[in-house]
């Protein structure tokens, strides 16, 4: 059980600023994610926590103790690598036992601990298998077991699922979440996949260009983004200017320098029935605040359907949960768009 | 990466000290003493420093000799590249009967030390060689028209001895290519590119780093080669021969000046290739799919390639067979005949009747062993420093680690004598000349670049996150190195160490200047036999040497296999 | 790993292991067989001495002694042409020693200041392949070698690296200086010889082999070696002494200046140049003694039956100019004779 605080941490490579000075408090037992697009500095930040990089400025405190000067070996912080970094010349058992050997554990103890962690990651039968003979998902779980078995104070994950296929990703995600809950290890998870971050995390820090944009719970981030980057990266929100809000939707509460961020699933759409609007039975569109758009593209992905709609030259994304008869709306169809009046998610207009 | 490097740990400090100590004491210092020698004024001018030797050689034969040396080296690189790449490609792409055996036999030229190779070539393709006479008799031509000599003779010997660098480098690159980036070949073919276009536009450019590495080794080895130009060169001038001639005439300053210029040409080529390689860097971030992919060929091409390969391999075996035959031929009986007629085991019985017969063998094994140990230690440390760390003077260190391969053995030996025939800081204030240590040291200095190159390239392709993973598991420097880095590098180290061991076993040019009675190596014993014109005895000793080399090859392949499965 | 390490350590131990005997280091080109013989004989008389001979060409021996000047490793230098000893004497590489038999040798076969003494006489001959030529057909004098019929049939040891060939070439130029007052005629002669020469071999073995294997028919070499090859190894070699007179090269012995065991070196010097040793060397190893007090009847027939005329030679002139003549030959004549 440990809490970790980052104070004024920054990192520059030569003239390039990879991480701007930032402060973070990660609480004991928390599952914390660093979320952002490639190159936003999240992996660099993670490597600094592990001790594999030295920060240009700032300090790390683990349980109030300054660990900035400690080498990675002395930090007791585990790391699960994106490419697994399993030792190819060792078996599953040898890989997992490695960290325990370093701690000079007794043979018997090593054996018991490895067996129990193998069970946890559901790899009991694979103890003596050579690494190249494992599947990607199995390799990932070995990497997880190897990091877990030494009972680190903090466990770091560097995009651990990005090399797995979709089904395996969901499965391994479950294993990670469950293990973290069971062990209660403070965890920092780096990913560019917002779905993964939302599903796993207690709190998420969204990063862009080396700067933390917002730190919050998944719900807060999703429904109350602080800026347009967070809104678009997390919820893939549509942005409407004050002018468009008032002319199309009859919303007048938006300032000139603000935008209204509307999530795709909040957009209401209905069939355009000539000059007189006829309300689609499944969308509860009110009469005021409605605009005419044209469907450019329909993407059916099982549970949801996504419509890309052209509204006065602006692309609007709208999603609906799929039902059989929705397929009636197809590309080229003219639709009526509206947004519920109770949405007040305003973000600053980008300069 | 940047800053994990900035923190120079004490372990790194020790590493750096050891490597810099070696490079400064045993590579730089001998080179400097050579440089100093070349500025000796000579005569009675009373000057301490003079460019006389350089002016002298520039006015006489330097230009001619260096043009020839560079030309012959480039031809050797070209020839070795064609043979080595072709063989590597065929063995990688085609299946044919007895392939495992042939793929071992293709390394046979390694077993033939230059000293022995020269005799073998004479009895094989010289004017009175078996092959020359046989073909001449068959077609009724004068043997003198068939003899391989002059430039072609030198290139033939060089290709025979040096193609192995291309073969080994290209083979490992092809394996890496098809295992981790096989889809690239498939992609090219699926885009409609022909096989020829795929080879030329995709495969060859991706092999560039290996080509550059092998070209460098071959070029330097050819520049420093002495026996082949000496045997086949006739009256053509080459730099190594000019060094020798100047020395024979007692003109040490000129000999040193030639040697310095030879080193400069070699280093120049090294820098040129380095610059070229940096311009074209093909690095891959993608992770391997594990699928092996090769270019498909028509059965005609396949058959032709396999036939050529098998003939080449058989041809490679001929010199070895020649030596073995010679060791069984009655002394003085094989003169005008195409093939020998009188056989005997006398050469061997005479050899073994000498109670000291095993001393030189034991000496050579022992010294080659020590040399290999030194080279492995220094080479691995240096490659870790150069590949994984950052420090001032890194480029210079890397250069020093490469240079000795381009310097003739004699020159290194003379440099070592001049540096260590008096107490020196680098020898713990003792005199190394006349001791056991000087020979392994000379072998080590000369062969260090082989291991350095193979280990450094192995380290470059090893994933640094493995070491980081060990660090985050609490593993400290030495344990990480022993348990993670070393096993990963093992195959590069073993293959490099094997070459070093073999080269040291048969080394002769620097041995002749450095050996003492208690440390006389096999090569000196062979030379002794030759000096008594006892060709059969020399061949018998050579046969023992080749058996020794084969044993080393066998053991090393077992080591690398056994440890990987450990 | 432990196994490898223990092998390694035992190797190191072996390397450091040394005997309690006093080592006496001899650099010599005389060959393994002869050196082993005299090692055994000397150690029988001096059981506390370990004779350590290093068998190498005389040029290699000279190179080593010169580079080891600051810290000499050798005690005795047994065997090199006198011209090389003259050079070594000038470079202060040798220690003076007067052997007990000093007066039994011709003046030109020893150093004026006792730095070296001659041991063997090696007259140079025109050697030929006796399977292809009879003595009558083979060249019988120096000038015969220039005849067009020998074009492409002469093979020579690369002269710069060979004491024997250096002395032959230098003598020819010295003759020219003596007879015509210029070296021009001598160089002209060498130019014509080069035109007839098929190849220069890097070492004597190659020369023998190529002559025996009929790549060439004629060479220039020293008589004892040719006799040895034909009698011991049964190679088809014969020889003619040049009618107008030949050069005879003196092979010598010297003590290395600053050596570690000077007294012992002197004893070895005396031992291998004693009458008995000289006779043994003549009988078993085909060496012609340079000492003139060896009884004729104790020498083998091939020596006593040998009669040849000696070319009068100015040795000082040769030792003065040898290097520069050979350099001139190397840069101006080698390979260019037929142009």
Overall description:
The complex is a heterotrimer of chains A (351), B (566) and C (339). With 351 residues, chain A is of the alpha+beta class. Chain A folds into two domains: 4-233, Rossmann fold; 238-348, RNA polymerase II/Efflux pump adaptor protein, barrel-sandwich hybrid domain (OB fold (Dihydrolipoamide Acetyltransferase, E2P)). Chain A has helices at residues 42-50, 92-102, 107-120, 136-149, 166-183, 194-200, 218-223, 228-235, 242-249; strands spanning 4-13, 16-26, 31-35, 57-62, 65-66, 77-80, 154-158, 186-191, 203-208, 211-216, 238-241, 258-262, 268-271, 291-300, 304-311, 314-321, 334-338, 346-348. In chain A, the strands form four sheets. A six-stranded mixed β-sheet of chain A has the order 6-7-8-3-9-10, sandwiched between helices. Chain A has a five-stranded antiparallel β-sheet with strand order 13-17-14-15-16, with no helix packed on it. Chain A has a four-stranded antiparallel β-sheet with strand order 2-1-4-5, with helices on one face. Chain C has 339 residues and is α/β, with parallel strands linked by helices. Chain C folds into two domains: 19-121 and 249-300, Periplasmic binding protein-like II (D-Maltodextrin-Binding Protein, domain 2); 122-248 and 309-333, D-Maltodextrin-Binding Protein, domain 2. In chain C, 42% of the residues lie in helices and 19% in strands. Chain C has helices spanning 2-16, 32-45, 58-67, 82-90, 163-180, 184-196, 204-212, 223-232, 262-272, 275-285, 301-304, 315-333; strands at residues 22-28, 49-55, 76-81, 94-95, 116-129, 154-157, 197-201, 218-222, 237-240, 248-256, 288-289. In chain C, strand 1 (22-28), helix 2 (32-45) and strand 2 form a beta-alpha-beta unit. The radius of gyration of chain C is 22 Å and the shape is globular. Classes of the chains: A alpha+beta (351), B mainly alpha (566), C alpha/beta (339). Chains B and C meet through helix 13, helix 14, helix 18, helix 20 and helix 25 of B and helix 1, strand 2, helix 3, helix 7 and helix 12 of C.
């Amino acid at each position: 059980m440990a809490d970790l605080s980052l104070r004024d941490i920054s990192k520059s490579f030569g003239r390039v600023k990879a991480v701007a000075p930032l402060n973070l408090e990660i609480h004991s037992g928390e599952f914390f994610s660093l979320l952002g697009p490639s190159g936003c500095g999240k992996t660099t930040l993670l490597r600094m926590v592990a001790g594999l990089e030295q920060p240009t400025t700032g300090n790390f405190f683990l349980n109030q103790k300054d660990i900035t000067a400690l080498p990675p070996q002395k930090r007791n912080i585990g790391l699960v690598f994106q490419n697994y970094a399993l030792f190819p010349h060792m078996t599953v058992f040898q890989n997992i036992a490695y960290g325990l050997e370093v701690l000079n554990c007794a043979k018997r103890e090593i054996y018991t601990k490895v067996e129990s962690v193998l069970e946890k990651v559901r790899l009991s039968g694979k103890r003596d298998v050579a690494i190249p003979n494992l599947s990607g998902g199995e390799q990932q779980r070995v990497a997880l077991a190897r990091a877990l078995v030494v009972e680190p104070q903090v466990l770091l994950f560097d995009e651990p699922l990005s090399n797995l296929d979709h089904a395996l990703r969901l499965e391994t995600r479950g294993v990670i979440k469950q293990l973290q809950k069971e062990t209660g290890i403070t965890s920092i998870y780096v990913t560019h996949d917002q779905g993964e971050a939302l599903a796993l995390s207690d709190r998420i820090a969204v990063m862009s260009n080396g700067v933390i944009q917002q730190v919050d719970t998944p719900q807060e981030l999703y429904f109350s983004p602080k800026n347009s980057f967070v809104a678009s990266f997390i919820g893939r929100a549509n942005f409407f200017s004050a002018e468009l809000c008032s002319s199309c939707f009859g919303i007048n509460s938006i300032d000139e320098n603000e935008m209204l961020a509307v999530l795709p699933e909040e957009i209401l759409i209905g069939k355009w029935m000539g000059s007189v609007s006829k309300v689609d039975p499944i969308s509860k569109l009110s009469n005021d605040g409605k605009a005419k758009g044209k469907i450019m593209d329909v993407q059916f992905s099982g549970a949801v359907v996504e419509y890309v709609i052209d509204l006065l030259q602006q692309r609007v994304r709208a999603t609906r949960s799929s039902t059989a008869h929705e397929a009636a709306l197809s590309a080229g169809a003219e639709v009526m768009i509206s947004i519920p009046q109770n949405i007040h998610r305003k973000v600053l207009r980008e300069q | 990466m940047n800053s994990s490097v900035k923190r120079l740990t004490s372990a790194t400090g020790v590493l750096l000290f050891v490597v810099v100590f070696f490079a400064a004491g045993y590579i730089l210092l001998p080179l400097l003493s050579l440089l100093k020698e070349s500025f000796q004024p000579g005569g009675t001018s009373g000057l301490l420093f003079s460019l006389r030797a350089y002016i002298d050689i520039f006015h006489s034969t330097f230009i001619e000799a260096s043009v020839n040396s560079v030309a012959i080296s480039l031809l050797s690189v070209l020839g070795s590249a064609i043979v080595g790449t072709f063989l590597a490609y065929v063995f990688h792409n085609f299946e044919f009967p007895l392939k495992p055996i042939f793929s071992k036999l293709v390394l046979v030229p390694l077993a033939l030390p230059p000293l022995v190779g020269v005799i073998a070539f004479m009895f094989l393709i010289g004017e009175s060689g078996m092959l020359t006479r046989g073909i001449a008799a068959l077609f009724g031509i004068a043997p003198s028209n068939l003899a391989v000599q002059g430039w072609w003779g030198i290139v033939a010997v060089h290709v025979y001895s040096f193609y192995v660098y291309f073969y080994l480098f290209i083979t490992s690159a092809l394996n890496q290519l098809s295992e981790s980036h096989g889809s690239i070949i498939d992609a090219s073919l699926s885009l409609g590119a022909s096989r020829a276009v795929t080879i030329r536009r995709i495969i060859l450019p991706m092999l560039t780093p290996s080509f550059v590495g092998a070209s460098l080794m071959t070029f330097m080895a050819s520049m420093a080669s002495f026996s082949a130009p000496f045997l086949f060169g006739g009256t053509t001038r080459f730099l190594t021969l000019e060094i020798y001639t100047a020395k024979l005439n007692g003109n040490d300053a000129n000999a040193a000046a030639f040697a310095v210029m030879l080193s400069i040409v070699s280093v120049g080529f090294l820098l040129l290739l380095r610059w070229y390689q940096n311009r074209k860097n093909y690095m891959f971030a993608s992770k391997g799919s594990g699928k092996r992919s090769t270019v498909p060929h028509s059965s005609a091409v396949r058959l032709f390639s396999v036939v050529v390969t098998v003939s080449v391999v058989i041809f490679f075996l001929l010199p070895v067979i020649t030596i073995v035959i010679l060791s069984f031929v009655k002394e003085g009986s094989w003169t005008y005949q195409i093939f020998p007629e009188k056989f005997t085991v006398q050469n061997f019985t005479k050899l073994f009747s000498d109670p000291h017969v095993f001393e030189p063998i034991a000496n050579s094994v022992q010294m080659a062993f020590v040399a290999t140990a030194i080279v492995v230690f220094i080479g691995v440390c240096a490659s870790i420093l150069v590949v994984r760390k950052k420090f001032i003077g890194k480029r210079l260190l890397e250069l020093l680690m490469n240079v000795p391969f381009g310097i003739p053995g004699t020159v290194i030996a003379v440099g070592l004598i001049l540096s260590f025939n008096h107490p020196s800081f680098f020898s713990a204030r003792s005199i190394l000349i006349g001791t056991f240590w000087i020979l392994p040291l000379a072998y080590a200095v000369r062969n260090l670049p082989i291991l350095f190159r193979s280990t450094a390239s192995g380290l470059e392709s090893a994933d640094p996150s493995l070491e980081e993973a060990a660090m985050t598991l609490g593993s400290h420097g030495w344990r990480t190195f022993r348990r993670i880095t070393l096993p990963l590098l093992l195959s590069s180290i073993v293959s490099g160490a094997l070459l070093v061991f073999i080269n040291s076993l048969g080394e002769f040019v620097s041995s002749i200047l450095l050996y003492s009675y208690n440390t006389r190596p096999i090569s000196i014993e062979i030379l002794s036999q030759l000096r008594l014109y006892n060709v059969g005895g020399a061949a018998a000793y050579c046969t023992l040497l080749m058996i020794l080399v084969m044993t080393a090859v066998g053991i090393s392949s077992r080591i690398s296999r056994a440890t990987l499965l450990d | 790993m432990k196994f490898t390490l223990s092998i390694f350590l035992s190797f190191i131990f072996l390397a450091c292991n040394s005997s309690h005997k006093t080592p006496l280091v001899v650099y010599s080109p005389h060959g393994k067989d002869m050196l082993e013989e005299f090692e055994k004989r000397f150690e029988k008389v001096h059981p506390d001495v370990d004779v350590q001979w290093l068998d190498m060409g005389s040029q290699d021996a000279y190179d080593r002694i010169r580079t080891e000047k600051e810290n000499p490793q050798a005690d005795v230098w047994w065997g090199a042409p006198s011209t090389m000893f003259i050079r070594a004497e000038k470079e202060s590489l040798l220690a003076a020693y007067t052997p007990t038999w000093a007066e039994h040798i011709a003046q030109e076969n020893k150093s004026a200041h006792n730095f070296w003494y001659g041991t063997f006489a090696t007259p140079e001959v025109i050697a030929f392949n006796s399977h292809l030529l009879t003595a009558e057909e083979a060249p019988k004098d120096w000038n015969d070698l220039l005849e067009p019929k020998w074009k492409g049939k002469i093979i020579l040891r690369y002269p710069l690296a060979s004491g024997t060939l250096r002395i032959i070439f230098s003598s020819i130029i010295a003759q020219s200086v003596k007879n015509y007052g210029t070296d021009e005629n001598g160089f002209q002669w060498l130019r014509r010889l080069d035109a007839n020469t098929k190849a220069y071999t890097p070492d004597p073995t190659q020369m023998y082999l190529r002559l025996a294997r009929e790549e060439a028919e004629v060479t220039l070499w020293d008589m004892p070696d040719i006799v040895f090859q034909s009698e011991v190894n049964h190679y088809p070699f014969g020889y003619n002494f040049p009618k107008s007179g030949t050069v005879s090269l003196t092979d010598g012995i010297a003590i290395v200046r600053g050596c570690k065991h000077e007294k012992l070196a002197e004893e070895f010097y005396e031992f291998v140049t004693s009458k008995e040793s000289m006779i043994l060397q003549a009988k078993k190893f085909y060496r012609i003694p340079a000492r003139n007090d060896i009884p004729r009847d104790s020498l083998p027939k091939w020596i006593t039956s040998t009669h040849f005329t000696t070319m009068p030679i100015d040795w000082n002139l040769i030792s003065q100019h040898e290097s520069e003549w050979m350099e001139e030959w190397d840069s101006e004549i080698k390979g260019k004779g037929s142009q």
